[in-house]
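pasting Sugar/nucleoside kinase (Ribokinase family) for the record, 319 residues
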Amino acid sequence: MSHPARRVVTVGLHVADVLGRYVDAIPPGQGLALLDEIRLTVAGTAAATAVDLARLGVPVATVGAVGADALGVFLRSTMADEGVDVTGLAVRRERPTSATMLPIRRDGSRPALHVIGSNAAIAPEDLASIDMSDVAVLHLGGTCLLPGIDGAPSVDLLRRARDAGVVTTMDFIPTGGAGDRDAVLPCLPFVDYLFPSEEDALSFAGAATLDEAITFYLGAGVGTLVITRGAAGVSISTRESRDVRRAAYSVDVVDTTGCGDAFSAGFIEGLVSGADVAEAAERGLACGSLVATGLGSDAGLHSAADVARLRAEGVRGAV
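structre below
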C-alpha cells in the first residue's frame, strides 16, 4: 500500500496503559496473584490510533498533552520511535501523564482504573497550532474526556478542517455525565465519519436498537456512521444506505484493549489511500481483529503486511 505525502493528524487522548493477564480475581488484603504477562503500552484514542497508522505506513502527527514524568517520557519517545510526529504533544508539568491499569480477564474483557491527568490539560491553543495545509484526515478521539477542548474548541477545529477540505473523523467516550451532549452534538455536523462502539452509540443516543441510534446520529448531521460491534463486525450507515453489515475476523482473543482505535486507524488508512467506505471498513476490521490477538493496544498489528495476511487467510465471523 502506497500513500500520498499528505498526513493524518490525531487529536485527543494519550494514555499509558499498564496491563496484566490473566486476572481471575483481585487477592484480598496484601495477597499475591501471579500473572502470565504485564506490559506498559501507548494507548488512547489519539495515541494508539497514531501508532497504528504509522505502522501501516501513513505519515501521522499527534496533538495532545502528557505530564513531565516517566510515563510522559515513555509516551513521547515510544511514539516518536514508531514514526509518529510528536511535535504537537505538549508537556504539562502541573499534571501527571494520563494512565490506566487494566486487569485482563480470560475472555479478553477488562475493567479500567484510570487517572485523567494531562488529558484534562489539552488547551484550545494546542489546536490552534495545527496547520491544515498538508492534512488529509483529522481524527478527533476521546470527546467527553477532554474538558479543556470539549465543546466550542473542538467544533472550531472540525469546522476549520472542513473549510480546508480535510476529511474529519471522530470517536467519543461518553461518561454518562450531563456535559456529554454539549461536548458531542455540536461537533457532529462537521464529522464526515463517526466511529462509536455499539455500546457507546446506544447509550449516548438513548436508543434501544441500532436502527434508533442510526436515525439519531444521521439526524444530528453525521456524514457516515460506522458503529463498531466487536466480534459482530461493523454497521455502516449513510443517508442513502442504512445498516450495511461487515463481519469481523474470527481470531483467538487475548485482550480487546485498543481494538476500536486500530479499527479507526485501518479505516483512516483506507481513506488516505482513496478506498471507498466498504474497503476502508474491511481494512479497519482486519486491524481491530489483529490487535485482539495480543496484550495491549499495540499487539498483533505491526505492518500493512499483517493486514494483508489476515485478509487473505482469515476466517470471517457472523454479522
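The mean pLDDT is 94.
The domain at 7-24+35-316 is CATH 3.40.1190.20 (UDP-N-acetylmuramoyl-L-alanine:D-glutamate ligase).
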